[in-house]
Amino acid sequence: MIHLVEVLHVLICLLLIGAVLLQGGENVDITAAFGGTSQAAFGPRGSVTLLAKITWVLGAIFIVTSITLAVHASRTGGGSVLENVPAKTAPAVPAPAKK
């Protein structure tokens, strides 16, 4: 079951990246393409686009899968990746030079 969540998480990550990259900036309209300025103080305000709604849904699913994977890792004893790092040892002291 957790493998399904992992695959879904990776798929959602890729879709979320694509959805964010496809969206335009705040002031993207036809007048900005030709060097004009917008009449609104903070750019045009319209209804929320379908791509923005898709981004919100993908973001919510991403958060749910992230929390699910984190809870599963803590319950199964996955722990931190830093627990498996070997302890640092003191560097070897060179032997005194022979005379």
Describe the fold and architecture:
With 99 residues, the chain is an all-alpha fold. Helix content is 52%, strand content 0%. α1 (2-22) runs antiparallel to α3. It is elongated, with a radius of gyration of 26 Å. The model has no long low-confidence stretch (mean pLDDT 80).
Short recap of the structure:
The protein is an all-alpha fold and 99 residues long.
How much is the average pLDDT?
Answer: 80
Number of helices: 3
Question: What string, H for helix and E for strand, traces the elements in order?
Answer: HHH
Kindly provide the radius of gyration, computed on alpha-carbon positions and rounded to a whole number of angstroms. 26 Å
Q: Alpha-carbon distance between the termini?
A: 69 Å
Main β-sheet description: none
Q: Count of DSSP E strands? A: 0
Q: Per DSSP, what share of the residues sits in E-state strands of 2 or more residues?
A: under 5%
Structural class: mainly alpha
Helix content percent band: 40-55%
Principal-axes shape call:
elongated
Low-confidence stretches: none
